[in-house]
């Protein structure tokens, strides 16, 4: 048999780079694969390419935002899981997340998935936007952890991320007080004022806090974590249905205080239905088991909260301790900060929509929004923390122009951006798009923005009112209307920001931007979409969505 000599290949890694021979070989393969993808050459044909084999295990395959086609908050869970169905376990865990990178879990979506996969995190209910749907899917997927689901060959980017198997926790900040959901500090509630007119269909509050004794600061773009408290009346109704004593001591607190301060009384977890199934018989047991398995025997599963469950299974009275053990912990809530610490040292403000709706004969209240808007008293302390932004920052160069799309409470971080740019003396142009239902009732911070316009800080203000005319008109419609100027700003290097609803508004804004680029940048739709994706990769398109 004739042996063919293979000439030695030049390494892609400099000799001075601090890597072992094994690391150098791996990195040669990684960068070779990237070059192959760009040139169309098969990876196996690239010099120095390293593939998994009997003597070269691929190692664990982690989730990676850059290679996640499902990383789109407008997608439903089923659609995301379908895209990830042939992927290893960690990416499938990521696909079950809400894909918002909101930070409420203390991670971004990929890192939360990787922390679960690597058993550095055991809590499966941290994805607040994903709710029970995500928690239930994570519970099912988590059963595969440790079952050898890592034998597939990793993609280059996923392997690169896995080189150190370090999981980024942007909120932890080395464990400093007030920098993590797990280590909040006390701050003082200062004031609230309503931003809507009396005839508005919404109730939105500007709320302020004193940070002077907390040791906290923040940067425009960060979010503020609030540890809310449940409505006392709701806790009292639950205690009455349990037939328990409010003052009954449980783990150092009264039952009433634990329900108010420690447990979620909203969407009921499967464990509550499991508990009720153990205590019931006949048809009630069948219903409880069905609900615990994600079924909807009576067509009311989406309307149930903890109190509604107790009414539904009225007469079944679990013990107080067993009942609490079946509940989820009360999660902190994150809000985009609407102030600049440089402009307002020692203070912080939020822009908060009150959540209130009616199901049957009961009013349902948003826990944190009504806590901040109605229940906490001025001067009272609450637990808080600062969540560092994940890729949502003003450009480092103050001369760079910025375009900000923030309808409704989505305007919050852009009020902070404008205050920050003024405090820094940044000379770059600023263009804000704001929209809501009615100009007369829903123009948040109207006087402030008018003053910013007059001073020249706010170069341009584009408004959209969806209920003032016969046809609905949104910020994305205004974008298309002023598309020529919008394209000109982008061509001149502007950074583009959007904040607000992830499911509809943010998706519609991105479509409008693609349309603007296609029309005024003389590109096909495909080329325009590629241009917008390029803005994202370059950090010139940033989103804070919820």
TrEMBL record:
> What does the record give under GO molecular function?
sulfite reductase (NADPH) activity
Cross-referenced CDD domains, in alphabetical order? SiR
Domain 4Fe-4S residues, every copy: 85-144
Q: Which domain of life is it from?
A: Bacteria
Q: Where is this region: Disordered?
A: 149-180
Q: Which UniProt keywords apply?
A: 4Fe-4S, Amino-acid biosynthesis, Cysteine biosynthesis, FAD, Flavoprotein, FMN, Iron, Iron-sulfur, Metal-binding, Oxidoreductase
The catalytic activity of this protein is classed by the Enzyme Commission as: 1.8.1.2
What's its top-level EC category?
Answer: oxidoreductase
Q: What cofactor does its activity depend on?
A: FMN; FAD
What PANTHER family does this protein map onto?
NADPH OXIDOREDUCTASE A, NITRIC OXIDE SYNTHASE-RELATED
Q: What is this protein called?
A: Sulfite reductase subunit alpha
């Amino acid at each position: 048999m004739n042996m063919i000599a293979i000439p030695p290949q030049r390494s892609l890694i400099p000799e001075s780079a601090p890597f072992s021979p094994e690391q150098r070989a791996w990195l040669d393969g990684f960068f070779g694969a990237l070059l192959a993808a760009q040139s169309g050459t098969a990876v196996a044909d690239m010099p120095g390419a390293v593939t998994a084999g009997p003597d070269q295990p691929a190692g664990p395959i982690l989730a990676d935002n850059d290679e996640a086609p499902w990383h789109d908050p407008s997608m439903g869970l089923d659609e995301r899981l379908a895209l990830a169905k042939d992927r290893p376990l960690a990416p499938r865990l990521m696909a079950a997340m809400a894909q918002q990178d909101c930070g409420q879990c203390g991670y971004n979506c990929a890192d939360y998935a990787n922390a679960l996969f690597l058993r550095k995190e055991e809590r499966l209910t941290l994805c607040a936007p994903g709710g029970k749907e995500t928690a239930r899917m994570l519970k099912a997927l988590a059963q595969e952890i440790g079952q050898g689901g890592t034998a597939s060959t990793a993609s280059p980017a996923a392997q690169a991320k896995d080189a150190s198997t370090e999981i980024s926790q942007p909120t932890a900040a080395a464990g400093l007080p007030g920098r993590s959901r797990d280590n909040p500090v006390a701050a003082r509630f200062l004031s609230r004022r309503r931003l809507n007119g009396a005839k508005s269909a919404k109730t939105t509050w500007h709320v302020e806090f004193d940070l002077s004794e907390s040791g906290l600061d923040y940067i425009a773009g960060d979010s503020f974590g609030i540890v809310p408290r449940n409505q006392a009346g709701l806790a009292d109704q639950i205690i009455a249905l349990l037939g328990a004593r409010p003052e009954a001591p449980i783990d150092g607190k009264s039952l009433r205080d634990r329900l108010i301060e420690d447990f979620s009384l909203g969407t009921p977890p499967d464990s509550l239905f499991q508990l009720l199934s153990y205590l019931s018989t006949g048809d009630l047991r069948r219903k409880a088991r069905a609900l615990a398995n994600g079924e909807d025997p009576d067509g009311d599963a989406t309307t149930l909260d903890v109190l509604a469950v107790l009414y539904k299974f009225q007469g079944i009275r679990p013990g107080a301790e067993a009942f609490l053990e079946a509940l989820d912990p009360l999660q902190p809530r994150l809000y985009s900060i609407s102030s600049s610490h440089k402009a307002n040292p020692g203070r912080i403000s939020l822009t908060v929509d009150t959540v209130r709706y009616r199901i049957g004969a009961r009013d349902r209240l948003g826990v944190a929004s009504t806590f901040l808007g109605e229940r906490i008293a001025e001067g009272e302390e609450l637990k808080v923390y600062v969540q560092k932004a994940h890729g949502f920052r003003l450009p480092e160069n103050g001369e760079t122009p910025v375009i900000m799309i923030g309808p409704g409470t989505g305007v919050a971080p852009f009020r902070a951006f404008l205050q920050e740019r003024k405090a820094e003396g940044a000379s770059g142009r600023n263009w804000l798009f704001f929209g809501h239902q009615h100009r007369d009732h829903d123009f948040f911070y109207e006087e402030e923005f008018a003053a910013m316009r007059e001073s020249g800080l706010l170069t341009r203000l584009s408004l959209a009112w969806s209920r003032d005319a016969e046809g609905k008109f949104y910020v994305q419609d205004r974008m298309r209307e002023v598309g020529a100027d919008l394209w000109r700003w982008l061509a001149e290097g502007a950074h583009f920001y959007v904040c607000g609803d992830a499911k509809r508004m943010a998706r519609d804004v991105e479509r409008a931007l693609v349309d603007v680029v296609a029309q005024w940048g003389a590109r096909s739709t495909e080329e325009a979409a590629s241009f917008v994706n390029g803005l994202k990769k370059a950090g010139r398109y940033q989103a804070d969505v919820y």
